[in-house]
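Before anything else, study the sequence and fold tokens given here and see whether the fold suits the sequence. Record follows:
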Amino acid sequence: MTPTTPNPDELQKILLDRLNLSDKEKKEFIFPEYKIGDLSLFEDMNIAVDRLYQAIKNGEQIGIYSDYDCDGIPGAVVLIDFFKAIKYIENVHVYIPDRHDEGYGLSKLGIDELEKKDVSLIITVDLGITAISEVADARSRNIDVIVTDHHEPLSPPAGGLPAALAVVHPKKGTYPNQDPCGATMAFYLVCAFLEKHKDEFGIKEGWEKWLLDMVGFATLSDMVPLVGENRMLASYGMMVMKKTRRIGLRTLFGEQRMNIERLTETDLTFTVAPRLNAASRMSSPMLAFALLSTEDQREALVIAKELEKINNERKTLVARIVKESHKKLDARDLPEIVVLGDLSWRPAVLGLVANKLQETYNRSFFVWGESGDGFIKGSCRMLDEHHAAYIFQALPEGVLLHAGGHQAAGGFAVAKEKIHFLEEELNKAVKNVNHTAEEKGNTDAISTNLSVATTRHLEKLRTLAPFGVGNPEPLFLFENVKVFITKMFGKNKEHLECNLEDSFGKATAFNFFTDPDMKEKIFAGASISFVGTLEAGWRGGVRIRIQALV
């Protein structure tokens, strides 16, 4: 295969052609128009807006009940910003469940706490669609519930939809965006309310765009497909993020020495999201919420430093469990879906462990530990051809205590006496699930050379960003490249940096968390071939991230 040497414009054309778009669609892809559709296409949206308006006019106490991850918490911040803007914040209470004690979803404990505050309306964010009994419990206490969620509903006869006053969900209606994240659903509720009532509350046209930093961040973090309206929300979210007014975000960026003007989706998903998620995994999710919603610089600095501390603790814990996992897996023949666990493992970090194992072994992984209440709880990470929510529904009744999720990931709980049968049941269930792998975009690497490692090439490539599910970052194949300087860097010298040269040019390349096999093959004087991506350099210019040797 002869490597191409495209100029920047040619590179952009090659990448756009691979998306199989019309000329009009290509233009819209690069320059997406900010436009929200007809939100009344959500079947219960008008009911939700009218009930929210009634609660505000009557001076009722309102509860925001959100998930504890980087979708739910930004969604809660979207609603808090809205209530601040209409000057109703004094009557609003945020509840985010403890990952360890309560686990995912609406719970009786959370409803109890909101009832103590005389809450008569609960708005869920990124949860609630499977909370049949919990919603019924709330309504028995004369608490109305508006569910905003994007997860898969339970299939009849398992339960169908909860009997909430309003269920604002993609599956309940004909709104074009059928794959939004949870924060986007909360944003849609705000937008629908403002369409009717912005003038009454003195909200200027377009004010809601300031919320897009949270919506875009959640869209990228929750790995929903970056196509159509999701791409638009993520694109504008990145623009707003670079201008964000949020003191907490600006403080976190500063602590991590991030250049806000050159911020990328990778910065958010690999630097910001892990620190915010560390709050619920290692401490309290309210830390992350407080950072994103605070208006106090001193408080923001204290929280940012605390999040850095607990994120380091999280990394150490995950590394230990991954190492133990490798030992357990060494002697095993691995089925399509692997179940792995230990009573000593902390459930809150097992999604991260499952993700690393899924990438290493190319299997779907369910990883479990024992929770504080004595139950077995865990997380799963799925291959593209598997769908967590569908597999949960295909399991026989009684295998799991509860479970929830979407295609790529999920959480589950199981009784101790059932855990040793779970792997067998999952591998039976997956055969009964008719699921076609979602289109992830064309991921074939472009054969090229080091001449593409220029700022002009990178600028053209970035016109197709943000990258993620449905719009993967372009891969490049570099062959027979000479290595002439290498060094390890990072706190524990776990990352590799090297200088490369071929007959077309020179470039700097790097690889995070370099495995021993790669480290042995990349040394001064070696000739290597690899697949990589282009990124902005730490000190300017362009660097190449080595994804895999070939």
Remarks:
- Residues 297-329 form the longest helix (33 residues).
